């Protein structure tokens, strides 16, 4: 078969491929060399690309007033810091109130203890006064030697307390019957006690 006698249907694929190659070369030339005419199909593809690029969102320029504005994160941190400070202040206030309440309770307990102690001291002084008066009357009626023997068994403070309650004659008779060293010690204590009472009355 002679090539020039090829049916027309066999030339269609070759024609299509040739047209595609021509369009591709035209597009490349139009991009590389200005002023070169571009076929309609190539212009359409270029227009589509330009339209797609134009459709992309362009970020808006920042306004001058927004440059120093704090961000949401900074505002959140500020709010959380203020809330934390308020919570800490409330906790400290609650602790102070609780401490003050415990202190007031302790003061009331101490006041009650003080009142009880004062009442006990008053009862003790009353009882001791009655006992002391009774003991003094007993020593007042005893013989000097017997009274001296009894005072020798008592401690110094008690012996002095009894002797100062006796009249001067009875006290001197009892001291005469006691050991001289013991009698001198008791006399010295009685003199110091009398001097202190005299100074306190001035």
From TrEMBL:
<feature type="domain" description="Magnesium transporter MgtE intracellular">
    <location>
        <begin position="127"/>
        <end position="189"/>
    </location>
</feature>
<dbReference type="Pfam" id="PF03448">
    <property type="entry name" value="MgtE_N"/>
</dbReference>
<dbReference type="InterPro" id="IPR038076">
    <property type="entry name" value="MgtE_N_sf"/>
</dbReference>
<feature type="coiled-coil region">
    <location>
        <begin position="96"/>
        <end position="130"/>
    </location>
</feature>
<feature type="signal peptide">
    <location>
        <begin position="1"/>
        <end position="42"/>
    </location>
</feature>
<keyword id="KW-0175">Coiled coil</keyword>
<keyword id="KW-0732">Signal</keyword>
<protein>
    <submittedName>
        <fullName>Uncharacterized conserved protein</fullName>
    </submittedName>
</protein>
<dbReference type="InterPro" id="IPR006668">
    <property type="entry name" value="Mg_transptr_MgtE_intracell_dom"/>
</dbReference>
